[in-house]
């Protein structure tokens, strides 16, 4: 029977009263079934390609839904519904686009299909079937009117959702600002940003792509589904991530799995994606990549705008971390200069005075015939002279810390720098073919051997590995002692350099599945054809980080 005007008006008001999109859609479908007397009613929500991304229905039992396995994909007769009017059929099985019912599908004949348009775009399609006596033209007109009311409800619920979503983004932005002002470490700040972004964007995985070895860019931070498998993933120079980095503007992809030009097959397991460049003063510092599972709702422009804003804060996190590091280096250089002045102005002068007193005493003893004592004083004078030489060498190295120095000295400098972060002096042991370099002039040949066998490229990585190993122990291990051993074994392609960093801290946390620093070390090892491993030490009371690379 035809729907009276008051019932249609009441239904329209009821449908338009919902601010929650899911509730609005469910109410729309239920009202449509009641007003027309249809046994079955459903609404298929479409993505930008016309595929069904959500399906709300009444009439089909739970058992039948389970047998069918998945909702209609929106093709065939359903896809033949016009974008600007209804499709009215007495028997849908006679339509030329009908392709048959899947097994377990209840029989349906009379059919009414209506487009639901939001902002002049088809948001979805309303499907009605099995009305006793069939659907009339009046039913079609009523459903078109109800679809317009549903469009208003959907638009209102979208605006409401966007406002609530904006509030959540602003809250995340405030949290990030607070974290930056507190001086949180760079890696910890980026991990927090990735986790909060994934949460607020309702993404399944969040990646942060940063500069890696050489000119490469790699995933340094990952949070969410398959995060541990994506750490260290190197992004191609002509891919989408690098494109948004160069252009300085973000990008939304409806589905990575459908892309024909996807170069990273590891990302083919995801559907919708959002790329947001980390821009600071017009320069790209990295890329934030948000990913959702296949079939999930696509990201929209409001998500992109907010993500780009937060990505700018992530770039600021890197800038502040670099500034803090520069400040620490400046403080260290000032401290070096002060120590150098004190050693030169005080220690050396006192040793000179002591030497003069010893020389006077030696001469007096020699005049008295005390040869044995005079010889002892002569040896003491030699020790004083040697101490003056060593202090002068130390002062020279302190005054010129950035000049080219041998690898052994660079490693000793790293150990000295790590003392501030650790709160104690780490143990550093360097050996060549099992012979330990003790640190005196007699080992100068061994020091030169290290430089001759380890070329500059590998030496830079060795220093970086030692630095990161001690830094990791300071930040995460809660250790009371750290031992670093650098071994140069053999020479040429058959030789290798081995770096072991061991601590007595809390050991490796199995819940931690990501670390940009550690992934960098693995990348450095792979670049030279070497290996990297992190695990418990032999005593089971701490961790052992082992890195090695062949000598070239």
TrEMBL record:
<keyword id="KW-0902">Two-component regulatory system</keyword>
<dbReference type="InterPro" id="IPR011712">
    <property type="entry name" value="Sig_transdc_His_kin_sub3_dim/P"/>
</dbReference>
<dbReference type="InterPro" id="IPR036890">
    <property type="entry name" value="HATPase_C_sf"/>
</dbReference>
<dbReference type="InterPro" id="IPR003594">
    <property type="entry name" value="HATPase_dom"/>
</dbReference>
<dbReference type="InterPro" id="IPR029016">
    <property type="entry name" value="GAF-like_dom_sf"/>
</dbReference>
<dbReference type="GO" id="GO:0000155">
    <property type="term" value="F:phosphorelay sensor kinase activity"/>
</dbReference>
<dbReference type="GO" id="GO:0016020">
    <property type="term" value="C:membrane"/>
</dbReference>
<protein>
    <submittedName>
        <fullName>GAF domain-containing protein</fullName>
    </submittedName>
</protein>
<dbReference type="InterPro" id="IPR050482">
    <property type="entry name" value="Sensor_HK_TwoCompSys"/>
</dbReference>
<feature type="domain" description="GAF">
    <location>
        <begin position="185"/>
        <end position="328"/>
    </location>
</feature>
<feature type="domain" description="GAF">
    <location>
        <begin position="20"/>
        <end position="164"/>
    </location>
</feature>
<dbReference type="Pfam" id="PF07730">
    <property type="entry name" value="HisKA_3"/>
</dbReference>
<keyword id="KW-0808">Transferase</keyword>
<dbReference type="Pfam" id="PF13185">
    <property type="entry name" value="GAF_2"/>
</dbReference>
<dbReference type="GO" id="GO:0046983">
    <property type="term" value="F:protein dimerization activity"/>
</dbReference>
<dbReference type="Pfam" id="PF02518">
    <property type="entry name" value="HATPase_c"/>
</dbReference>
<keyword id="KW-0418">Kinase</keyword>
<dbReference type="Pfam" id="PF01590">
    <property type="entry name" value="GAF"/>
</dbReference>
<feature type="domain" description="Histidine kinase/HSP90-like ATPase">
    <location>
        <begin position="457"/>
        <end position="552"/>
    </location>
</feature>
<dbReference type="InterPro" id="IPR003018">
    <property type="entry name" value="GAF"/>
</dbReference>
């Amino acid at each position: 029977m035809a729907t009276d005007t008051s019932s249609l008006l009441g239904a329209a008001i009821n449908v338009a009263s919902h601010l929650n999109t899911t509730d609005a859609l469910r109410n729309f479908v239920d009202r449509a079934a009641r007003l027309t007397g249809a046994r079955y009613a459903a609404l298929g929500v479409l993505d930008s390609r016309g595929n069904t991304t959500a399906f709300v229905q009444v009439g089909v039992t739970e058992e039948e839904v389970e047998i069918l396995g998945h909702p209609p994909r929106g093709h065939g007769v359903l896809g033949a519904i016009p974008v600007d009017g209804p499709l009215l059929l007495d028997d849908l099985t006679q339509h030329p686009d009908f392709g048959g019912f899947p097994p377990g599908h209840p029989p349906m004949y009379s059919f009414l299909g209506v487009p639901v348009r939001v902002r002049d775009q088809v948001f979805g399609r309303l499907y009605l079937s099995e009305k006793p006596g069939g659907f009339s033209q009046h039913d079609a007109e009523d459903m078109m009117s109800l679809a317009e009311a549903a469009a208003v409800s959907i638009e209102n619920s979208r605006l409401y959702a966007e406002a609530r979503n904006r509030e959540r983004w602003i809250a995340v932005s405030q949290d990030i600002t607070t974290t930056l002002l507190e001086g949180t470490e760079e890696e910890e700040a980026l991990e927090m940003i990735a986790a909060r972004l994934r949460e607020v964007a309702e993404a399944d995985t969040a990646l942060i792509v940063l500069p890696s070895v050489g000119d490469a860019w790699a995933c340094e931070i990952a949070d969410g589904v398959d995060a541990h498998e994506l750490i260290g993933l190197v992004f191609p120079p002509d891919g989408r991530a690098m494109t948004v980095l160069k252009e300085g503007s973000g990008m939304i992809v409806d589905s990575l799995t459908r892309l024909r030009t996807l170069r990273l097959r590891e990302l083919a397991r995801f559907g919708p994606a959002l790329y947001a460049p980390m821009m600071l003063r017009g320069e790209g510092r990295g890329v934030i990549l948000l990913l959702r599972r296949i079939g999930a709702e696509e990201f929209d422009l409001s998500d992109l705008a907010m993500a780009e804003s937060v990505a700018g804060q992530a770039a600021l996190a890197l800038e502040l971390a670099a500034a803090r590091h520069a400040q620490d280096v400046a403080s260290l250089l000032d401290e070096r200069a002060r120590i150098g002045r004190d050693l030169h102005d005080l220690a050396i002068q006192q040793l000179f005075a002591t030497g003069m007193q010893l020389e006077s005493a030696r001469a007096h003893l020699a005049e008295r015939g005390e040869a044995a004592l005079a010889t002892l004083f002569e040896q003491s004078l030699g020790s004083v002279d040697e101490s003056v030489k060593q202090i002068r060498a130390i002062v020279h190295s302190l005054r010129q810390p950035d000049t080219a120095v041998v690898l052994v000295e660079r490693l000793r400098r790293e150990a000295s720098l790590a003392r501030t972060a650790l709160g104690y002096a780490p143990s550093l042991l360097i050996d060549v073919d099992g012979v330990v370099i003790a640190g005196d002039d007699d080992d100068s040949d061994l020091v030169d051997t290290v430089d001759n066998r380890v070329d500059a490229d590998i030496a830079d990585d060795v220093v970086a590995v030692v630095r990161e190993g001690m830094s990791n122990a300071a930040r995460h291990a809660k250790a009371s002692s750290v031992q670093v051993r650098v071994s140069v074994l053999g020479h040429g392609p058959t030789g290798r350099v081995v770096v072991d960093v061991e601590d007595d801290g809390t050991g490796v946390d199995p819940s931690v599945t990501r670390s940009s620093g550690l992934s960098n070390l693995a990348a450095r090892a792979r670049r030279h054809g070497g290996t990297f491993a992190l695990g418990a030490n032999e005593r089971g009371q701490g961790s052992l980080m082992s890195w090695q690379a062949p000598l070239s």
